Fold:
Amino acid sequence: MRSLSSRSPLPQNDEGTRVSEDQLLATLDDSDVKRSLDSAKADRDSAQAAIADYEVQLRNANTQLKRAQDLQAAGVQTQEALDNARTAVDSLKAKIELAKQQVAATESRIAVAQQAVDNCTIRAPFAGVVVSKDAQVGEMVSPNSAGGGFTRTGIATIVDMHSNEIEVDVNESYIARVENGQQVTATLDAYPDKPFPAKVRTVIPTADRQKATVKVRITILNLEKYDFILPDMGVKVAFLENEQPARRGKSKDKEKGPQAVAFIPKSAVRSDANVSFVLLVRDGKVERRAVSLGLDRGTEVAVLSGVAPGDSLVVKGPEGLHDGDKVEIR
Structure:
């Protein structure tokens, strides 16, 4: 939890201000994390200085060791003096290794502290418009609200004015008629006389059980031509040609609803060279029929074309069945 610094440029900008990507929005109070960073750097410098000192001592100790070895070989130096010289060299080598480990540890502390300092500088993740300023100078900012009156969970809300996506909820009984790339006509509630073209981007593969709907994302085509479109405006969409937008209004008896779509077990669908097909049974013989598939419901899949009501399908037949083979239904 940190307070918004008085060095922040954001409080000078009201809602409606345009910001560019990576533009500075706010600066949080970073005095404590900067002290941690400075402390880590001081510890690193101290360890590096110790290494330099130990290395000087090690060079002298190696010189003393060489002299002791020569004197011991000449018979004028005791074995104890030689062992002491070797111990001094080994001790300094161990101190240098320990100091190097301390340098590595402080480098890690410096990286963590530097990241904490960097996190105190808040920049725009993308170009857009400030639609709400959520914190003022001196207020506390935390990812999770602590319950205090001066604690904020955000600095500002920015909207990408070039976002060309619409999210709509489609009744699950109609979702089989919706497919990726399908042409759509959208109309804003505020401008009912200004329809604009769009197309289905994706059907989210999960349903809202309470509302019995499936979420569909739609891409607005040529967004730059429609400057009256603003974020979060109410919109109605029509997926089928000549169909009136009916997502929010009451249905009329004279309006024709989407045609029913058949679902078949997925085990009945086979594929060959990326072509989906099923095996029908007609007059005791197998007939191969190419099919166009739609919504996948797990164990069942929608068939948009290729089969008709009343067709008999091979669901669990042997893999070796071919077009024209004789079969017996049991």
Summary: Confidence is low (pLDDT under 50) at residues 4-8, 241-260. The chain has three domains: 2-133, 165-238, 261-330. Helices lie at 31-73, 79-119.
